[in-house]
Prior knowledge:
This protein has one helix at 18-69; strands at 89-95, 98-103, 112-120, 128-132, 141-143. It is of the alpha+beta class. The chain has one domain (19-160): Glycoprotein, Type 4 Pilin, CATH 3.30.700.10. Strands 1, 2, 3, 4 and 5 form a 5-stranded antiparallel sheet that branches. Strand 2 and strand 3 (112-120) form a beta hairpin. The longest helix is centred in the first third of the chain and has 52 residues, at 18-69. It is elongated and about 90 Å long. The relative contact order is 0.13.
Amino acid sequence: MKFYSAVKxxxxxxxxxxxxxxxxxxxxxxxxxxxxPFYQTYMVRTKVTEGIALTGAMKLSIAEHYSIYGHFPANIxxxxxxxxxxxxxxxxxxxxxxxLVEFSDMNGKGSSLSVRPALAENDLPKVxxxxxxxxxxxxxxxxxxxxxxxxxxxxxxxxxx
Length: 161
Protein backbone atom coordinates (compact mmCIF):
# COMPACT_ATOMS: atom_id res chain seq x y z
CA MET A 1 0.00 0.00 0.00
CA LYS A 2 1.46 3.34 -1.03
CA PHE A 3 0.85 6.58 0.79
CA TYR A 4 1.07 9.76 -1.18
CA SER A 5 0.89 13.14 0.29
CA ALA A 6 -1.67 15.46 -1.07
CA VAL A 7 0.72 18.32 -0.40
CA LYS A 8 3.24 19.04 -3.10
CA UNK A 9 6.81 18.56 -1.86
CA UNK A 10 8.87 21.72 -1.64
CA UNK A 11 11.96 21.95 -3.76
CA UNK A 12 15.02 22.38 -1.51
CA UNK A 13 17.63 24.84 -2.63
CA UNK A 14 21.21 23.64 -2.64
CA UNK A 15 24.30 25.83 -2.73
CA UNK A 16 24.82 29.51 -1.93
CA UNK A 17 22.78 32.54 -2.73
CA UNK A 18 24.74 35.38 -4.26
CA UNK A 19 24.51 37.44 -1.07
CA UNK A 20 25.90 34.57 1.03
CA UNK A 21 28.75 34.18 -1.43
CA UNK A 22 29.61 37.89 -1.25
CA UNK A 23 29.54 37.85 2.55
CA UNK A 24 31.85 34.81 2.56
CA UNK A 25 34.25 36.62 0.21
CA UNK A 26 34.20 39.69 2.46
CA UNK A 27 35.03 37.63 5.55
CA UNK A 28 37.85 35.77 3.82
CA UNK A 29 39.37 38.98 2.42
CA UNK A 30 39.21 40.65 5.87
CA UNK A 31 41.00 37.67 7.43
CA UNK A 32 43.67 37.77 4.71
CA UNK A 33 44.15 41.51 5.16
CA UNK A 34 44.91 40.92 8.84
CA UNK A 35 46.89 37.67 8.48
CA UNK A 36 49.31 38.62 5.67
CA PRO A 37 51.14 41.42 7.58
CA PHE A 38 51.45 39.18 10.64
CA TYR A 39 52.88 36.40 8.49
CA GLN A 40 55.38 38.76 6.85
CA THR A 41 56.54 39.99 10.26
CA TYR A 42 56.85 36.38 11.41
CA MET A 43 59.03 35.52 8.40
CA VAL A 44 61.37 38.48 9.01
CA ARG A 45 61.68 37.53 12.68
CA THR A 46 62.55 33.98 11.65
CA LYS A 47 65.39 35.32 9.51
CA VAL A 48 66.64 37.48 12.39
CA THR A 49 66.54 34.48 14.71
CA GLU A 50 68.80 32.56 12.33
CA GLY A 51 71.29 35.42 12.43
CA ILE A 52 71.28 35.50 16.23
CA ALA A 53 71.76 31.72 16.37
CA LEU A 54 74.77 31.94 14.07
CA THR A 55 76.44 34.40 16.45
CA GLY A 56 76.35 31.88 19.32
CA ALA A 57 79.66 30.15 18.56
CA MET A 58 81.24 33.46 17.64
CA LYS A 59 80.29 35.01 21.00
CA LEU A 60 81.91 32.07 22.79
CA SER A 61 85.13 32.44 20.77
CA ILE A 62 85.24 36.20 21.37
CA ALA A 63 84.75 35.74 25.11
CA GLU A 64 87.48 33.10 25.18
CA HIS A 65 89.86 35.42 23.29
CA TYR A 66 89.06 38.21 25.76
CA SER A 67 89.71 35.98 28.77
CA ILE A 68 93.09 34.86 27.39
CA TYR A 69 94.44 38.12 25.93
CA GLY A 70 92.54 40.79 27.87
CA HIS A 71 91.13 42.48 24.76
CA PHE A 72 88.60 41.70 22.07
CA PRO A 73 89.80 40.33 18.73
CA ALA A 74 90.24 43.08 16.13
CA ASN A 75 88.57 41.15 13.31
CA ILE A 76 87.04 37.81 12.42
CA UNK A 77 90.38 36.39 11.21
CA UNK A 78 91.62 36.15 14.81
CA UNK A 79 89.06 33.48 15.73
CA UNK A 80 88.77 30.05 14.11
CA UNK A 81 86.04 27.81 12.72
CA UNK A 82 83.21 30.29 12.61
CA UNK A 83 80.27 29.93 10.24
CA UNK A 84 79.69 33.32 8.64
CA UNK A 85 76.64 32.71 6.45
CA UNK A 86 73.34 30.84 6.44
CA UNK A 87 70.07 30.55 4.55
CA UNK A 88 69.10 34.17 5.24
CA UNK A 89 72.39 35.53 6.56
CA UNK A 90 74.63 36.89 3.85
CA UNK A 91 77.67 37.62 5.99
CA UNK A 92 78.85 38.06 9.57
CA UNK A 93 81.62 40.56 10.30
CA UNK A 94 83.33 41.56 13.51
CA UNK A 95 85.11 44.72 14.62
CA UNK A 96 86.77 44.82 18.05
CA UNK A 97 84.33 42.32 19.55
CA UNK A 98 81.17 43.82 18.03
CA UNK A 99 79.45 41.44 15.61
CA LEU A 100 77.55 42.71 12.57
CA VAL A 101 75.08 40.28 10.98
CA GLU A 102 74.09 41.20 7.40
CA PHE A 103 70.96 39.61 5.99
CA SER A 104 70.49 38.76 2.31
CA ASP A 105 66.79 39.52 1.74
CA MET A 106 64.52 41.19 4.25
CA ASN A 107 61.67 42.30 1.94
CA GLY A 108 62.98 45.83 1.62
CA LYS A 109 63.45 46.24 5.37
CA GLY A 110 66.70 47.04 7.18
CA SER A 111 69.24 44.35 6.68
CA SER A 112 71.81 44.40 9.48
CA LEU A 113 71.90 43.66 13.20
CA SER A 114 74.68 44.44 15.69
CA VAL A 115 75.49 42.09 18.56
CA ARG A 116 77.85 43.82 20.98
CA PRO A 117 79.59 42.80 24.20
CA ALA A 118 79.03 44.76 27.39
CA LEU A 119 81.65 44.68 30.13
CA ALA A 120 81.02 45.10 33.84
CA GLU A 121 82.66 48.32 34.99
CA ASN A 122 84.52 47.28 38.15
CA ASP A 123 84.38 43.49 38.33
CA LEU A 124 87.51 41.39 38.11
CA PRO A 125 87.48 39.09 36.25
CA LYS A 126 85.43 41.02 33.73
CA VAL A 127 81.89 39.81 33.16
CA UNK A 128 80.69 39.91 29.54
CA UNK A 129 77.02 40.23 28.62
CA UNK A 130 75.85 40.34 25.02
CA UNK A 131 73.39 42.91 23.70
CA UNK A 132 71.85 42.94 20.28
CA UNK A 133 70.09 45.64 18.35
CA UNK A 134 68.72 48.50 20.42
CA UNK A 135 68.84 46.72 23.80
CA UNK A 136 70.30 48.73 26.66
CA UNK A 137 72.75 47.19 29.13
CA UNK A 138 71.92 46.83 32.81
CA UNK A 139 73.42 49.31 35.27
CA UNK A 140 77.20 49.21 35.66
CA UNK A 141 77.80 47.66 32.21
CA UNK A 142 79.42 49.44 29.29
CA UNK A 143 78.68 48.33 25.73
CA UNK A 144 81.71 47.95 23.48
CA UNK A 145 81.62 48.89 19.78
CA UNK A 146 79.11 50.79 17.69
CA UNK A 147 75.51 49.87 16.96
CA UNK A 148 75.01 49.45 13.20
CA UNK A 149 71.51 47.96 13.45
CA UNK A 150 69.27 49.46 10.76
CA UNK A 151 66.28 47.18 11.23
CA UNK A 152 62.95 48.44 12.67
CA UNK A 153 62.52 47.22 16.23
CA UNK A 154 59.24 45.43 15.38
CA UNK A 155 61.25 42.84 13.44
CA UNK A 156 63.72 42.17 16.23
CA UNK A 157 63.23 39.51 18.87
CA UNK A 158 62.22 40.93 22.25
CA UNK A 159 65.75 40.67 23.69
CA UNK A 160 67.05 43.03 20.98
CA UNK A 161 64.47 45.82 21.22
